[in-house]
Structure formats: C-alpha cells, structure tokens
Automatic annotation (TrEMBL):
This is Uncharacterized protein. Keywords: Signal. Residues 1-24 form the signal peptide. Pfam families: C166 (PF17615). It comes from the Eukaryota.
Length: 202
C-alpha cells in the first residue's frame, strides 16, 4: 500500500516550485481548520441520527432529513477541497514550531468525531432499509455511496497535505489516525454500495 508520505513526496518539488512564499499556511491555521472540521463532523451527527425507515420514505418528495444531510455532507466536502487548494505547495513548518506539535492531536480529535458520524450513518442505514435493488429507496444508496467516496478522497488528500507540512514524528501519528478512519470509510461505503442484506434481515 502506498503511504500518504510517498504520494506527497513524489509531487513535493513541483508543488513547492508553484507556491508563492506569501501563501504559506501557518501551523495555527491548520489547527484551527481541524477544529472547524471536527465541529462540522459533530454537526452532521444529529441529522444522521434521524435516518430511519419513515424518513427514508419522506425523501421521495424531497422531505425528511436525508436530502438535507446529503447537501450538508457535500458542503463539508467542498470545504475540505478548499483547504486542499489552500495548502497545496506550502513549505513545511520550521523545526520547533509549537503549534505544529499539536497538529497530530487536533487531527486525531477530528478523526474521532468523523468516525462517530460514519458509524451512525452505517448503523442507521440498516433502519432505513438501504439495500441496493432491495431497499425502499435504492437511488439514495448511490447518493450516499458517492458522498462517502468523495469525502474519503478529499480527506485523504487533506491528510497528505498536512503530512507534507509536518515532521516525521507527526507524520506517523497522522497516518495512523488516517488508517483508522479509512477503514471506517471503507466499511460505510461497502454497506451503502454493496447492500448487506443479511445484516438487514438478522
């Protein structure tokens, strides 16, 4: 498996050559951005908890929490994509940067918050009967599956952007946290796109 560090290193020279020094991202900005992502992840949890069979039926007419949840998750992805663009090419933080030392902890806090969201989505999907070709609203499986896939891709890039800015010790912690949430993403995506019918019926 190719590590985030490997992906980042292959393009580092080009990215650094393209980025003006004036656009350098500060470590404090990264910490603040991670706190924002953590807050957005918690904010998505309440609408995710409202996903159930009755509300899934309401979505046929655009009502209920599900269409709004998809839109809000898309907004989250757009925000992450904006961060990816802003971080691209920024030079690494200087050795001894105090705020940079707190980034792994901030990233971990975000991972915990977003993992809770993903677990809620996976658990409540069973209540809504989201099984492709079998559940009450198969098209929503595709919508949720696509959202999860796009979120995972955006966040993987974001993790790589942070790794490019931090030192080796921080990198190891960030990649460890990413590996955990990546597994949670894969489980959620697999459920929505594959449809674990046995889980629904058990």
């Amino acid at each position: 498996m190719v590590s985030i560090r490997t992906i980042t290193t292959t393009a580092a020279g080009l990215l650094l050559s393209l980025a003006p020094a004036a656009l350098a991202v500060t470590s404090a900005t990264v910490v603040n951005n991670l706190a924002t992502l953590e807050g957005k992840s918690y904010a998505l949890q309440d609408p995710a908890r409202e996903v159930n069979l009755v509300n899934a039926q309401l979505s046929v007419t655009g009502l209920g929490p599900i269409p709004g949840l998809i839109r809000e998750y898309r907004d989250f992805i757009t925000f992450v994509s904006g961060l990816n663009a802003a971080y691209q090419g920024s030079p690494p933080f200087a050795a001894g940067d105090a705020a940079a030392a707190t980034i792994p902890t901030s990233f971990r806090r975000f991972v915990v918050a977003h993992s809770i969201l993903l677990n809620i989505l996976t658990g409540n999907a069973r209540l809504a009967g989201f099984v492709p070709g079998v559940g009450v609203l198969p098209p929503l499986n595709v919508d949720f599956g696509n959202v999860l896939s796009d979120a995972r891709a955006a966040l993987e890039t974001y993790a790589a952007r942070i790794v490019a800015l931090t030192d080796a010790a921080a990198d190891a912690q960030i990649q460890s946290s990413w590996a955990e949430i990546n597994g949670t993403f894969n489980a959620a995506y697999s459920f929505y796109r594959s449809g674990l019918l046995n889980d629904i019926l058990s």
